[in-house]
Amino acid sequence: MSPILRVGVLASGRGSNLQALLDAGTRLDYPARVVVVVSDREDARALERATAAGVTALFLNPKDHGARTAYEAVLTKTLERHDVGLVCLAGFMRLLTPVFVRVWQGRLMNIHPSLLPAFPGLHAQRQALDHGVTVAGATVHFVDEGVDTGPIVLQAAVPVQATDTEETLAARILVEEHRIYPEAVRLFAEGRLHVAGRKVSIR
Ligand code: GRF
């Protein structure tokens, strides 16, 4: 068996996807563990969740570091100090520069609450409702230099109901997010993801 994958999570808010990764890591047969959680917001619930799970929780204040790249350099140093093999964005509300993305290329994942390439960016569930789609969903993807444009690892679809509000649709999508993010991390940890251009194949 390969060694346990050390995962760093960047999160700005509620941290329910972080929780799904923390919970997965408590299972003996799961090949990855969250070892550090970093937030750009001091009041992020994600930091409380990490602490409750006994995982290092760090608030790094962007205001302390001036330029975006200076802040990201500190992020990278912190993640490297914890010997992280994969970085998971989980509701991290900062756009990352190409410099950071290049450092972590192929080792940087994100979860987005739509069936990409539909509805990238903010308020994906509202975009889906406004567009009138009947199927929505969630996507785990590797991060490239665009916004929600990187190679797709896993997707899950959910139906849109006529009575849906942004909240009810988001809740239905979230159930799938919590399932596919730990699954994608598991596949990565097992060395089963092969990326060729835009396409990710699972071995
Ligand atoms: C999720 O919907 C995720 O897809 C998006 O931001 C939200 C974060 O939620 N990127 P949480 O903080 O994981 O609860």
Describe the structure in your own words.
This protein is α/β, with parallel strands linked by helices. It has one domain (5-195): Rossmann fold (3-Layer(aba) Sandwich). 34% of the residues lie in helices and 25% in strands. It contains six helices and nine strands; from the N terminus they run E-H-E-H-E-H-E-H-E-H-E-E-H-E-E. The protein has helices at 16-25, 45-52, 68-81, 98-103, 124-131, 166-189; strands spanning 5-10, 32-39, 56-59, 86-89, 108-112, 135-142, 152-159, 193-196, 199-202. The chain has a seven-stranded mixed beta sheet. Strands 8-9 form a two-stranded antiparallel ribbon. Helix 1 packs parallel to helix 6. The radius of gyration is 16 Å and the shape is globular. It binds 5-O-phosphono-beta-D-ribofuranosylamine. 5-O-phosphono-beta-D-ribofuranosylamine binds next to helix 1 and strand 5. The site of 5-O-phosphono-beta-D-ribofuranosylamine (GRF) has 12 residues, from helix 1 and strand 5.
